[in-house]
């Protein structure tokens, strides 16, 4: 086992035989830190934003900036909008930005660094919370260092010298701690991030490993892959960013051969507690050094991971004691008022999830002239069968009827959406913004009836909230012809391998208007020899529109 290096001393001296990443020894890493320290020391301003795809490259720049006295801002991504948003908060950018930024100095131009001042060394992370709006949170190195020490105390013995694999980004607090700071302090090598299950499986077939994942990743482990190679190699599997459903946790345990360990906390609080899915749903147990109590039904925490370690911090989580641990009962801040009625979104979700056809559900409030409860449901296999057999309207009515014993019409969702998965952001969290966006789609969800080599047929429910209805004849809302043409081509591309180049329209006819509430059927015929897509919209009212789309020849190069 490698010597433990406190975070303030990770780059002070080179340590022979210590690996930071496969093919990157500690001496090489330290040289890169010194090059970044020199670059940052020569750059004006205190606040710098970092983004790197590669975790060891990020770690070198992070410690180089810290040793140069800079405060580091972590970017969730390197998109232009993110850089634009941060431009007024930081003095510069370094890393993998398309528009460029600070680069490391030549090797050997910096003096050997002194240990970092834990109280003065700062990092700013962003959390999306439940609304999707980024919120900046400053962390001191002493908070991060105490949390890394707690992770080693809790899980270090079982982790041993395992290499650290991850599916989550180090640009967020969970990935930063588990994929960068903890491995640097403990001497465990950092493997490249893996995005796809096939790549992860191949990577895990090597030496003993740790896996740092998210609930979204663990609940989608493909059954058809042979996970046997991973079963003997994994020392531990970690998950954070949201609760892992019991079914997903137990399936992950069976496929990976290791019970997932969930970490409970937030960017503000750091790690609070953990639980491991050995059997039935376990209680949460505090991490080393963390104290907790219950006041007015809410969890209170005192921890060295907090900004003020001596104060009790009150969460919005409702809890109950369970032995020497606790169980989460839902969020106190998820109580909303609908027409002067108090509704617990957590309780409503639990009641919907008890339906035999539901795998997951999330409820939120859709603002408007009258706020409305809406639900996004991920059906299970039985639920998809009901949807295909009954249709969306009947299935939604069945869910509403299922709730009628506990919830009246006011406190039940007024609108429903069905999805293969809940929408998540880069942190693996489901945000209110992503949920509400599903209720303003550009086009309806297709219900395919036929999908053959040259013929396809699908049904489309024209919900009143489709964005294509906005601004088009408000006195008599109808489906615009341009939307019908766009849908024909878009769904045609989903059904057939259409050439990329559009040439012209032929025989275009609009015979009958389609209105909100209609269910229309789109018939598609692909003539390969003529590069022509014929389409026709019909409904119970009769034909609506038809025509042919002619494409250019398929490029043979």
Structure description:
The protein is of the alpha/beta class. 27% of the residues lie in helices and 29% in strands. It is built from 14 helices and 28 strands. The strands form seven sheets. Strands 8-9-10-11-12-13 form a six-stranded mixed sheet, sandwiched between helices. A hairpin with a 5-residue loop joins strand 20 (358-366) and strand 21. The model has no long low-confidence stretch (mean pLDDT 89).
Distinctive features:
single chain, 14 helices, 557 residues, six-stranded mixed sheet, six-stranded antiparallel sheet, alpha/beta
Summarize the structure.
By secondary structure, the chain is an alpha/beta fold. It contains 14 helices and 28 strands. The strands form 7 sheets. It has a 6-stranded mixed beta sheet, with helices on both faces.
Show the helix and strand layout.
Blueprint: E1 19-21, E2 24-25, H1 26-41, E3 47-51, H2 55-67, E4 71-74, H3 80-86, E5 92-95, E6 122-127, E7 135-140, H4 141-159, E8 163-166, H5 173-186, H6 197-204, E9 209-213, H7 215-218, H8 228-231, E10 234-239, H9 246-256, E11 261-266, E12 270-276, E13 285-286, E14 291-295, E15 298-302, E16 313-322, E17 325-331, E18 335-338, E19 341-344, H10 345-353, E20 358-366, E21 372-379, H11 381-390, H12 392-403, E22 415-418, H13 432-437, E23 447-451, E24 455-461, H14 481-495, E25 502-510, E26 519-527, E27 532-539, E28 542-551
Parallel strand pairs: 3-4, 3-5, 4-6, 8-9, 9-10, 10-11, 21-22
Antiparallel strand pairs: 1-2, 6-7, 11-12, 12-13, 14-15, 15-16, 16-17, 18-19, 20-21, 23-24, 24-26, 25-28, 26-27, 27-28
Helix pairs in contact: 1-2, 4-5, 11-12
């Amino acid at each position: 086992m490698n010597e433990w290096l406190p975070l303030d001393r990770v780059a002070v001296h080179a340590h022979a035989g210590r690996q930071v990443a496969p093919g990157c020894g500690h001496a090489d890493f330290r040289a890169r830190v010194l090059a970044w320290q020199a670059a940052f020391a020569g750059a004006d301003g205190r606040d710098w934003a970092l983004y790197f795809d590669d975790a060891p490259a990020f770690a070198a720049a992070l410690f180089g900036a810290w040793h140069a006295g800079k405060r580091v801002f972590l970017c969730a991504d390197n998109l232009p909008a993110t850089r634009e948003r941060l431009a007024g908060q930081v003095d510069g950018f370094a890393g993998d930005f398309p528009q460029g930024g600070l680069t490391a100095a030549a090797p050997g131009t910096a003096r050997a660094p002194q240990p970092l001042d834990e109280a003065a060394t700062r990092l700013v992370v962003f959390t999306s919370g439940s609304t999707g709006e980024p919120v900046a949170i400053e962390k001191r190195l002493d908070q991060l260092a105490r949390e890394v020490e707690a992770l080693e105390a809790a899980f270090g013995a079982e982790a041993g010298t395992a290499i650290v694999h991850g599916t989550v980004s180090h640009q967020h607090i969970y990935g930063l701690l588990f994929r960068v700071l903890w491995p640097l302090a403990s001497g465990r090598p950092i493997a490249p991030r893996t995005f796809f299950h096939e790549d992860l499986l191949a990577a895990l077939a090597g030496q003993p490993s740790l896996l740092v994942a998210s609930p979204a990743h663990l609940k989608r482990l493909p059954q058809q892959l042979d996970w046997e190679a991973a079963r003997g190699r994994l020392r531990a599997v970690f998950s954070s960013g949201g609760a892992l459903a019991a079914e997903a946790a137990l399936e992950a345990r069976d496929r990976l051969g290791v019970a997932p360990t969930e970490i409970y906390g937030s960017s503000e609080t750091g790690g609070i507690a953990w639980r491991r899915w050995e059997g039935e749903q376990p209680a949460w147990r505090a991490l080393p050094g963390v104290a907790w109590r219950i006041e007015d039904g809410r969890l209170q925490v005192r921890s060295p991971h907090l900004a003020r370690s001596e104060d009790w911090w009150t969460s919005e989580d409702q809890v109950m004691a369970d032995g020497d641990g606790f169980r989460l009962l839902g969020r106190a801040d998820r109580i909303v008022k609908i027409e002067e009625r108090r509704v617990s979104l957590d309780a409503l979700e639990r009641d919907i999830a008890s339906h035999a056809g539901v795998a997951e559900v999330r409820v939120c409030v859709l603002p408007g002239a009258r706020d409305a409860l809406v639900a996004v449901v991920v059906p299970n296999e039985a639920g998809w069968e009901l949807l295909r057999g009954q249709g969306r309207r009947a299935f939604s009515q069945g869910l509403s009827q299922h709730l009628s014993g506990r919830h009246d019409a006011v406190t039940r969702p007024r609108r429903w959406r069905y999805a293969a998965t809940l929408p998540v952001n880069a942190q693996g969290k489901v945000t209110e913004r992503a949920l509400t966006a599903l209720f303003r789609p550009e086009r309806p969800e297709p219900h395919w009836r036929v999908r053959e080599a040259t013929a396809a047929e699908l049904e489309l429910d024209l919900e009143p909230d489709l964005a294509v209805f906005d601004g088009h004849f408000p006195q008599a809302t109808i489906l615009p012809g341009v939307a019908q043409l766009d849908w024909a081509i878009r769904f045609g591309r989903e059904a057939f391998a259409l050439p990329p180049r559009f040439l012209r329209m032929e025989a275009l006819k609009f015979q009958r208007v389609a209105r909100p509430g209609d269910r229309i059927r789109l018939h598609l015929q692909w003539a390969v020899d003529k590069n022509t897509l014929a389409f026709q919209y019909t409904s119970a009212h009769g034909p609506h529109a038809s025509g042919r789309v002619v494409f250019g020849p398929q490029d043979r190069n």
